[in-house]
User: Fold this.
Amino acid sequence: MKIHREGKKIIFITGAAIFVIVLLMLLFCKDWNIVHYLFVCALVVLGLMVTSFFRIPRRIFTDSPSELVSPADGTVVAIEQVYEKTYLKSECTQVSIFMSAANVHVNRYPCDGLVEYVKFRRGNYFVASYPKSSDLNERTEIGMLLDNGKRILIRQVAGVMARRIVCYSKEGERVKQNQELGFIRFGSRVDLFLPLDFPINVALQDKVKNAISPIAEIV
Assistant:
């Protein structure tokens, strides 16, 4: 396991703040009681939680040109037919994955392809599991042209705790399956918008892992 580069500064600041607080307590609090010890334990737990959030576990990625693999860790909270109006401009299947604060938050490309479209949209910060958060929350959209000529849209959606979406996609860039796409801090959601003829391989409430779990077949 390693730490994502997006978290190194935050982890350093958190660790430094905890160190300073504990040092000040040691200097000015002469008679410690159970409250002091519990407070220090809470600070340590906070530091471990922040570090854990930015973890990248070692994994054996799924390498399958015929499948779309999950772009995120989390729970499948929506599978429905919708009209996507920004890039695909057609009826499609939306598969939404909700990432809690406990999930790994790195995002990866679900397949090979050409990035044709990248758009950041400002918005609200509703709970990411809320169905309308896909359209109302702050988000980044990445449109891809696949090798078979089909197109998909990936949408990174900020949640109630997520205040920063990091996206590395650039228009005109050729990308590979499981290549890192970006990162969303502290609870969020990733939506996939797929052609209607792509068979879906997951069900509602399924737990999926990025770069491992097959989401749909490419046809």
